[in-house]
Amino acid sequence: MADSLKLTPASALHISRHMIAAHGLIPNTSIQSRPLLIYHSAFEPSSVTPAALEEHLHAVGAVVPQWRYTMYPTSHFHSTTHEVLAVSWGAARLCFGGDDNPAKVEPTVRKGDVIVVPAGVAHRLIKDLNEGGESFEMVGSYPPGCNWDMCYGNAGEQDVAERIAKIPWFERDPVYGDSGPVLED
């Protein structure tokens, strides 16, 4: 099935890079100084299926697909791992950085996009842009051996910065392997 998945050559890929300032108890990109990355149309949308995305991500080996779902509507972040989200269906407007953060980013993502969310970056669904039929869906993936947690920037979460600082960055690009945008930043 992955043979039918059409990967955009890295040289032709449009990438958005966002450094997002800490806000309250949400660290965003301040600890590791790694940007939120959006690979726009990393895969030709007409070729994308959840199974094909999972097969491709497994084959590259930088991350392990763990779920298929939409994005939670509540701002949250992970303190134990970086996250790779491959859009498998539809389109949505998302929020990165925290709702009240003046530095937040609110992109629209679509089927075929891939988002690399560094540990500590808050994210949530603002709006599913699909009308009728199936809902916005992503394949959520994490580096091998990593398990995600849920943090909300609440009191009592002050120790997360120490955990985030210890998380190694990717040694391979989750989409392109031995080279690619995640290795350039």
The helical percent reads: 10-25%
Total helical elements: 3
User: What is the radius of gyration?
Assistant: 15 Å
The number of strands is 9
CATH class category: Mainly Beta
CATH architecture: Sandwich
The main pleated sheet reads as: 6 strands, antiparallel
Structural class: alpha+beta
- The domain tally reads 1
Which fold name corresponds to the CATH topology? Jelly Rolls
Portion in beta strands: 25-35%
Report, as a whole number of angstroms, the end-to-end distance: 31 Å
Low-confidence spans: pLDDT under 50, at least 5 residues? Answer: none
Strand line-up in the sheet with most strands: 1-2-7-4-9-3
Order of helices and strands: EEHEEEEEEEHH
Kindly report the average pLDDT value: 95
Which descriptor suits the 3D outline? globular
Question: Which properties best describe this structure?
Answer:
six-stranded antiparallel beta sheet; 185 residues; RmlC_Cupin_sf; Cupin_1; alpha+beta; Jelly Rolls
Structure summarized in a few sentences:
The chain is an alpha+beta fold. Helix content is 11%, strand content 26%. The chain has a 6-stranded antiparallel beta sheet, with helices on one face.
How would you describe what is shown here?
By secondary structure, the protein is of the alpha+beta class. The chain has one domain (2-165): Jelly Rolls, CATH 2.60.120. The protein is built from 3 helices and 9 strands, in the order ββαβββββββαα. The protein has helices at residues 50-60, 160-165, 181-184; strands at 14-18, 36-40, 64-69, 83-89, 91-96, 108-110, 114-117, 123-128, 137-142. A 6-stranded antiparallel sheet has the order 1-2-7-4-9-3, with helices on one face. It has a 3-stranded antiparallel sheet with strand order 6-5-8, with no helix packed on it. The radius of gyration is 15 Å and the shape is globular. 41% of the residues are buried. The model has no long low-confidence stretch (mean pLDDT 95).
